[in-house]
Backbone:
């Protein structure tokens, strides 16, 4: 069994992995760039080591991370999500240095990270994909020809893209002409590759993804689906498990597709197969994420499966702890990403010192975070500072519990998305379980919330006004 793990990440996911290690009796080693010197994952891990003064470069240096793993006696490395989590080079270096990479093999990461190769693999397996180019488009003329054949609107996408970058919707030929060079430029800067491909735009889709686990003995299971349709500019805001928009027959169908996809490419460890569901309830393969997802907790709370611990067991060469028949779902779970952003100001990041923080609690409530009172959120990283996960036996009950929990959690000192989540929760569309990826754009009125201030904040404001009137 694995005895010591280097966690090549930061923030709440690093804290999450530390906790999994602690429960398994495994030593954890944290790493940090200088802005993270006082971060929570440093305080929680058994050991912590500096990556130097750089803000981001240290987390992106595969050789330095593996060297540190070897120097500290680690026999495994967990990449978390983001940074190098889907970088085949990191997995290859781990293999050469005899450090177990807690994720799939380098070849699978490379293949599924190339969206054209992934599409071709899924087509060969009989899994439906959206109409589009068979591979990368060679030039603008080819893109224009394909777009004319499949019909506008189309999506122009970076082959190595992810995180909502390197993607543009084009409604007309002139728009495709304008966007083509922009997407290539963005893809080159963000991913080091200029390759792009074309897909038919699916109007008002629902974004449904399936969590899978696969061991090194040929066993593959799914842990049901998550609904990630509530998103802004291709960035997820709210995730739900299971989807309130699927029938049991659809749930079985998409789960089987995900398992087939994983078996087709020889997948091992935890992964997510993502689909778009159109207005006519057709499913289309979108991509496969070869890592742990931000939203994995909603799956954990409806199934009782600890996905991170399963990842570690798989990397150690053990069989899955569950068969497909043993995995049962119970109730509904919703995850709200608590971002340090100002929704009223076009979601501008709001970094700074947390003057007061209380995590939500009570029955069916889980808070995964990396903040504490007095912690300063650095401006160099993603704005997500916590995740609020709420579970209940049925949909109506989880909505009620979610509102209570969102009112329960307190983050002062920076702007957050908490008030905006409350508005989403209260919308009739969300409560009825009928929404798609256009929900946020279709409801700009949700931004016009009024923030209720605490008695202490009101007293402070009154005191400041009185002091100003007296010339103090």
Residues:
């Amino acid at each position: 069994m694995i005895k010591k793990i280097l966690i090549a990440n930061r923030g709440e996911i690093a804290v999450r992995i530390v906790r999994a290690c602690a429960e398994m009796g495994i030593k954890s080693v944290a790493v940090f760039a200088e802005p993270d010197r006082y971060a929570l994952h440093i305080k929680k891990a058994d050991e912590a080591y500096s990556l130097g003064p750089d803000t981001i470069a240290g987390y992106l240096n595969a050789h330095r991370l593996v060297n540190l793993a070897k120097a500290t006696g680690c026999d495994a490395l967990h990449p978390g999500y983001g940074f190098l989590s889907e970088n085949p080079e990191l997995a290859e270096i781990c293999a050469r240095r005899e450090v177990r990479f807690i994720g799939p093999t380098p070849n699978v990461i490379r293949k599924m990270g190339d969206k054209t190769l992934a599409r071709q693999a899924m087509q060969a397996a009989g899994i439906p994909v959206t109409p589009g180019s068979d591979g990368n488009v060679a030039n603008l003329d080819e893109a224009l020809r394909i777009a004319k054949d499949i019909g506008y609107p189309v999506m122009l996408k970076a082959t190595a893209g992810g995180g909502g970058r390197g993607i543009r919707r084009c409604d007309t030929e002139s728009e495709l002409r304008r966007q083509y060079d922009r997407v290539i430029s963005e893809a080159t800067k963000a991913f080091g590759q200029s390759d792009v491909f074309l897909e038919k735009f699916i109007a008002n889709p629902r974004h449904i993804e399936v969590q899978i686990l696969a061991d090194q003995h040929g066993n593959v299971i799914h842990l049901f689906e998550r609904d990630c349709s509530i998103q802004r500019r291709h960035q997820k805001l709210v995730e739900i498990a299971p989807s309130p928009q699927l029938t049991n027959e659809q749930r079985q169908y998409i789960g089987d597709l995900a398992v087939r996809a994983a078996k087709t490419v020889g997948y091992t460890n935890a992964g997510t197969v993502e689909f778009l569901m159109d207005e006519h309830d057709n499913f289309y393969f979108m991509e496969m994420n070869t890592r742990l997802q931000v939203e994995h907790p909603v799956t954990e709370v409806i199934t009782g499966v600890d996905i991170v611990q399963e990842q570690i067991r798989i990397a150690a060469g053990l069989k899955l702890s569950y068969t497909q028949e043993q995995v049962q779902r119970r109730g509904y779970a919703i995850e709200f990403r608590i971002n340090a952003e100002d929704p009223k100001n076009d979601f501008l990041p709001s970094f700074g010192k947390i003057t007061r923080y209380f995590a939500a609690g009570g029955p069916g409530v889980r808070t995964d975070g990396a903040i504490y009172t007095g912690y300063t959120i650095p401006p160099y990283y993603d704005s997500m500072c916590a995740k609020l996960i709420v579970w209940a036996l049925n949909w109506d009950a989880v909505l009620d519990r979610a509102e209570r929990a969102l009112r329960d959690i307190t983050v002062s000192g920076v702007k957050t998305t908490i008030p905006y989540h409350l508005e989403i929760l209260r919308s009739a569309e969300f409560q009825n379980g009928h929404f798609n990826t256009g929900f946020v754009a279709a409801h700009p009125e949700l931004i016009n919330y009024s923030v209720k201030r605490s008695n202490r904040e009101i007293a402070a404001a009154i005191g400041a006004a009185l002091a100003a009137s007296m010339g103090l």
Summary: The first helix runs from residue 11 to 24. The chain is about 35% helix and 25% strand. Residues 453-458 have pLDDT under 50 and may be disordered.
